[in-house]
Specification:
mainly alpha, 63 residues, 79% helix
Length: 63
């Protein structure tokens, strides 16, 4: 995950430097939200069994 985050950082820094002059504030916010969701998804996939057990303890049905 650390390697993935480093690569993502490089990509975002390069993208911001390339398009930094343009007025892309709204696009940057949308992209930020998307990136955050993807990172949460990656963390979720790493810890599926822990999340599953916690959800079961809360009484969530198996489906």
């Amino acid at each position: 995950m650390i390697q993935r985050l480093r690569k993502l950082n490089q990509l975002i820094i390069g993208w911001v430097n390339y398009f930094g002059i343009a007025d892309t504030c709204g696009l940057a916010r949308t992209f930020d939200g998307w990136v955050r969701r993807r990172i949460r998804k990656c963390y979720w996939k790493q810890k599926v069994s822990t999340k599953y057990n916690n959800l079961m303890r809360l009484g969530i049905p198996r489906q």
